[in-house]
C-alpha cells in the first residue's frame, strides 16, 4: 500500500492530467474540422473565431479559481490555476497562429499594416504580449528568481489582460454591431474581478482593525 502522502500526490497529478486532456478537446475538434473539412465556407475565419472564443473562455475559467477557493474554503483549487493559465496561453497562441498563417500567409509586412489598419488587432496583441510574460514566469524557478512579492505584482497583469480581451472583442464586433456575446463575457469578467475587489478590500480592512 502506498503512503498516504504519495497517494494524495498521485491523485493530484491524475486530476491535473484529466483537466488538461479535457481542455484540449476543443483543439482536437478544430483539428478534426480542418482534417475533414467541416469548418464551413470560410475555414480560416472559423478557426480564428473559435480559437479566440476559447482563449476568452479559458481566461474566465482561470479567473474563477480564486472565487471558488474563497467561497468553498478548499485551497486545492489552486492546483489547477497554473495549468488553466497555460491553457489560456495555448489557445491564444493557436488564435494568433491561425490569423498569421491562414489569414495573412505569414507575410509580416502585411500583418504590420493590418495591425495599423485594424487597431482591435493591436489590442489583442497587447493582451497576448502580457499573457506571454505571465506564461514565461509561471514556473517555480521564475517565482524563486523574482521573489514572491514581485511575482504577485507581475501576475496582477491578468486583470489588464481581461480588459484588453474585452476591448479587442468589443472593437472587433463594433463593425457588425453584434454585441450580445461581448456583454455576456464582459458581465462574467466583471463579476469575477468584482469578487476580487470585494474580497481583498474586506481582507485588508480586517487586517487594519
Ligand atoms: C488575450 C489575447 C486574445 C484574446 C482573448 C482574443 C479573443 C478574441 C475573440 C473572442 C474574438 C472574436 C471571436 C468571435 O467573433 O466569436 C477575436 C477575434 C479576432 N482576433 Fe483575437 N484575441 C486575442 C489576441 C489576438 C491576437 C494576438 C491576434 C492577432 C495577432 C488576434 C486577432 C484576431 C482577429 C483577426 C479576429 C477577428 C477574426 C474575424 O474577423 O473573423 N487576436 N479574438
Short description:
The chain has helices spanning 4-23, 25-36, 43-72, 81-103, 108-117, 119-136, 140-146, 148-155, 157-174, 180-208. By secondary structure, the chain is an all-alpha fold. The relative contact order is 0.09.
Set out the fold topology.
Elements (H helix, E strand, L loop, with lengths): L3 H20 L1 H12 L6 H30 L8 H23 L4 H10 L1 H18 L3 H7 L1 H8 L1 H18 L5 H29 L1
Helix pairs in contact: 2-3, 3-4, 3-10, 4-6, 5-6, 6-9, 7-8, 9-10
Structural class: mainly alpha
Number of helices: 10
Q: What fraction of the residues are assigned to beta strands by DSSP?
A: under 5%
Please summarize the sheet with the most strands: none
- The 3D shape can be described as globular
Give the overall pLDDT as a whole number: 95
Radius of gyration: 19 Å
Ligand inventory reads: protoporphyrin IX containing FE
Description:
By secondary structure, the chain is mainly α. The protein has one domain. Helices cover 84% and strands 0% of the residues. It is built from 10 helices and no strands. The chain has helices at residues 4-23, 25-36, 43-72, 81-103, 108-117, 119-136, 140-146, 148-155, 157-174, 180-208. The mean pLDDT is 95. Protoporphyrin IX containing FE is lined by residues 45, 48-49, 52-53, 55-56, 59, 92, 95-96, 99, 121, 124-125, 127-128, 131, 161, 165, 168-169, 172.
